[in-house]
Specification:
alpha/beta, Isopropylmalate Dehydrogenase, two-stranded antiparallel ribbon, 19% strand, 10-stranded mixed β-sheet, 2 domains
């Protein structure tokens, strides 16, 4: 099993180092063999922010790609979107998680404790808007957009959500921005057909308004949320803001096979931030997603997530400082997670 790592130097390099510390502890405790390869960006690639053919080929030959998303530099959102496109990845899965130890930071105190919601959607692409413009209708200037929905990618996205729900609480909520749109009706129909193959999973439908309202009032009641590309980004931004710790959320791109690109959902801050004072939990949780969805290591992924929850209740890095808990460096934080993960894995043997 091979994991390709893409990151810049500095703070991103430190985050990757901490994530690898945890993965190496998992390998040792589970007697696994994971191969790590680091993409070495060329000077033109760093300047243009466009993945080179060598980088794309390296990613294609890997089982999973660990990507450290940054605000500035080479590995920005633009670079990530181009890489996703070249790898043929069309779907997004993002975790909205509020650990019990961080519930005091959440915007919705009572409802948000213990939230663990997986948001899945097709990623927005230019091909979804093949035609748009302005024209005069009844004497008035009107703007129009033609929105397309692809039944194949809609089906694969729905199956991804249903498969994920099988290993969680066996519940999927489907929502779209406007149920009267033909593209939304196609996604809904395709999702219903796919759900017929998953008898253990309960599929329910909510309008966009109902989904937003339920997410605000009772986010913990939603397990897997399957949204359309228009509504998904809005719901994730809402969930991340509600969490009070958006920099701890992780995400992934997926496609036709098991391969995916796993990354920190909120980009790392610009240079100048103290490297050992930034919490590496987002990238560590992205590693757990990679183990679960690309490598099929459900137990190891669960142990990492459980370890992160425990360590957050014992100590924090400076960017998550809480007066009642000791402040530790990112190095110590990741070492505690690695040790706790190994203990959880070993305890099951």
């Amino acid at each position: 099993m091979k994991i390709c790592i893409l990151s810049d130097s500095g703070l991103a390099g430190e985050m990757v180092h901490h994530a690898k510390t945890v993965l190496e502890a998992v390998c040792k405790a589970s007697y696994l063999s994971l191969e790590f390869c680091h993409g070495q960006s060329e000077e033109t690639e760093l300047q243009d922010g466009i993945p080179s053919r060598e980088t794309v080929d390296l990613c294609r030959t890997s089982d999973a790609v660990l990507f450290c998303l940054q605000q500035t530099g080479a590995y920005t959102r633009k670079y990530l979107d181009l890489l996703r496109s070249k790898l043929g990845l069309f779907g997004t899965m993002r975790l909205i998680r509020i650990f019990p130890a961080l519930s005091a930071c959440a915007a919705v105190k009572d409802a948000a404790a213990g939230v663990d919601c997986l948001l899945i959607q097709e990623e927005w692409s230019d091909g979804m808007l093949p035609e748009q413009g302005e024209k005069v209708i009844d004497g008035d200037l009107c703007g129009y957009d033609v929105l397309l929905s692809n039944s194949q990618t809609a089906q694969l996205t729905a199956r991804t959500a249903l498969c994920a729900a099988q290993n969680r609480k066996k519940s999927v909520v489907f929502t779209d921005l406007c149920e009267k749109m033909s593209s939304a009706a196609l996604r809904r129909r395709v999702t219903n057909i796919a759900a017929s193959e998953f008898s253990e999973v309960e599929l329910s439908h909510l309008t966009g308004t109902e989904a937003v309202s339920r997410f605000l009032r009772s986010p913990g009641s939603i397990d897997v949320l399957l949204a359309d590309p228009l509504l998904g980004d809005l719901l994730f931004a809402q969930g991340a803001a509600m969490s009070g710790a958006p920099n701890l959320q992780c995400a992934a791109y997926f496609g036709y096979g098991k391969q995916g690109v796993y990354y920190n959902a909120m980009p790392l801050p610009e240079s100048g931030v103290q490297e050992d004072a930034t919490c590496p939990a987002a990238l560590i949780l992205a590693c757990a997603m990679a183990l679960r969805h690309s490598l099929g290591l459900e137990w190891e992924a669960h142990c990492i997530e459980k370890a992160v929850a425990k360590v957050l209740s014992l100590g924090r890095t400076a960017d998550l400082h809480q007066p009642s808990l000791p402040t530790v460096s990112a190095t110590v934080f990741s070492a505690y997670i690695a040790q706790t993960t190994a203990e959880y894995i070993s305890s099951a043997e």
